[in-house]
UniProtKB/TrEMBL annotation, chain A:
One GO CC term, this protein: TRAPPII protein complex
The name this protein goes by in its record: BET3 family protein
Keywords: Endoplasmic reticulum, ER-Golgi transport, Golgi apparatus, Transport
Compartments, record wording: Endoplasmic reticulum; Golgi apparatus
Region (Disordered): 1-63
TrEMBL record, chain B:
Range of residues in the leader sequence: none
GO annotation, biological process: endoplasmic reticulum to Golgi vesicle-mediated transport
Family: Belongs to the TRAPP small subunits family. TRAPPC4 subfamily.
Top-level taxonomic group: Eukaryota
Protein name: Trafficking protein particle complex subunit
Record key words, sorted: Endoplasmic reticulum, ER-Golgi transport, Golgi apparatus, Transport
GO cellular component entries: endoplasmic reticulum; Golgi apparatus; TRAPP complex
Organism listed in the record: Tremella mesenterica (Jelly fungus)
Record note on quaternary structure: Part of the multisubunit transport protein particle (TRAPP) complex.
């Protein structure tokens, strides 16, 4: 009992009664020493009845330490991440993944699955923010294919990379293939692929992200990333979207 | 005002990158360049022990007839060496720019192993662009 009491600051006289009632509310004497010590901050404000509750009560919030999870969702200012921080994080993600895969295809699949998770979250966030900023009585979500692709081309790319994609076009080979081009992708701008991994494109992460967004809008597709360099843009990358037959069928019905 | 060559020497004194940007420099085998870079690393270490003022910070530049070399060491122990013609203006800024390219294209590249030879086409092309703008 004496031990648990030593964690307190010298108590103000009126709180002394609650201090001595502490062990009786939890359990008899021996376990009171093993129970987690109450935090100092708590005694400064007011003394809750039981020692156990002290641990779970949040520390009185100081406005300056608002965690990332406590920030309002529709507040966008100041939420940007520096490109260097991202570059180092992404480099670590890639070398971590690389030590756990056997082939380039597997590595791309791992990156894509990470991007997929990000894409699903980004979609929800963007839709929520759009609803909040426009009139909240009339929330809107695209359901036709072309507006969905344009939504990704402008809004999603602008949110993720700070600028819209450089091009959105339909493939000449098939009706169900669309291409999103980015002349200098910001996520992978510092990465140069070694020769022995020729086919790898770390933009697989972006491909996964796009796939996540499309899936969230009920447009299942197979999305892959390819590096298609030009003289002017040596890092130009193309995100190839091959839509599921289901989507094409639905579009046909909706067009009538 | 010509930049003859750029070397990058790692913490242990190994040459991890070297490129020649002028044809006036005598051609050497890679092994000879490796030995020269290792020797320069040693001289830098000796001179830093001789520094009477702070006890650290060694050889920063050397000069010969119409040519010179500039050595710059980062906090992490990477040494950038530039061989240049005399008189050359703005070498300090150039070193900073080279280091910037190094930190972007080499340190942020997941396929680069620390202390190993630099094998990044991005680093080479950006460095070439920088040197061409100076030469």
């Amino acid at each position: 009992m004496a031990q648990s009491a030593t964690y307190y600051n010298p108590p103000p006289p009126q709180s002394s009664s609650s201090r001595f009632s502490l062990p009786s509310t939890t359990s008899p004497s021996p376990s009171s020493t093993s129970s987690p010590p109450p935090r100092r901050e708590v005694s400064r404000t007011s003394l809750p009845p039981s020692g156990l509750q002290n641990v779970f009560t949040p520390i009185p919030g100081q406005g300056r330490n608002v965690g990332i999870l406590d920030r309002p969702l529709n507040k966008t200012r100041g939420g940007e991440v520096s490109n260097s921080a991202w570059a180092f994080l992404f480099a670590e993600i890639i070398s971590y993944s690389q030590s756990r895969v056997d082939s380039v295809t597997d590595l791309e699949r791992r990156l894509a699955s990470l991007g997929y998770e990000a894409g699903q979250r980004i979609l929800s966030l963007l839709l929520l923010r759009n609803t909040l900023t426009t009139s909240s009585k009339d929330p809107k979500r695209e359901h036709r294919l072309i507006p969905i692709l344009q939504f990704i081309h402008t809004q999603v790319y602008k949110y993720v990379f700070g600028k819209p994609a450089d091009g959105l076009e339909r493939s000449v080979e098939g009706e169900d293939e669309y291409m999103l081009t980015c002349n200098s992708p910001p996520l992978t701008q510092h990465i140069s692929i070694p020769r022995d991994m020729g086919q790898l494109s770390c933009e697989a992460f972006t491909a996964g992200l796009v796939e996540g967004v499309l899936d969230g809008l009920d447009v299942p597709a197979r999305v892959t990333a390819h590096t298609v360099p030009t003289d002017q843009y040596p890092q130009r990358s193309v995100i190839l979207i091959k839509l599921d037959q289901k989507v094409m069928d639905r579009e046909e019905i909706l067009a009538k | 005002m010509t930049i003859h060559a750029v070397w990058v020497i790692n913490k242990a004194g190994g040459l991890v990158f070297s490129r020649t940007y002028s044809d006036t420099l005598p051609t050497q085998t890679l092994n000879a360049t490796l030995i020269l870079a290792g020797t320069l690393h040693g001289i830098h270490a000796i001179t830093s022990r001789l520094n009477p003022i702070t006890g650290k910070g060694g050889l920063e530049s050397f000069e010969g007839e119409n040519w010179g070399g500039k050595i710059w060491m980062s906090l992490t122990g990477i040494k950038l060496v530039v061989l240049h013609s005399i008189a050359h203006q703005g070498l300090d800024e150039l070193m900073k720019k080279i280091y910037e390219i190094y930190s972007d294209a080499v340190m942020k590249n997941p396929f680069q192993t620390l202390e190993m030879p630099i094998n990044s086409s991005l680093f080479e092309s950006r460095l070439l662009g920088l040197i061409q703008s100076v030469n």
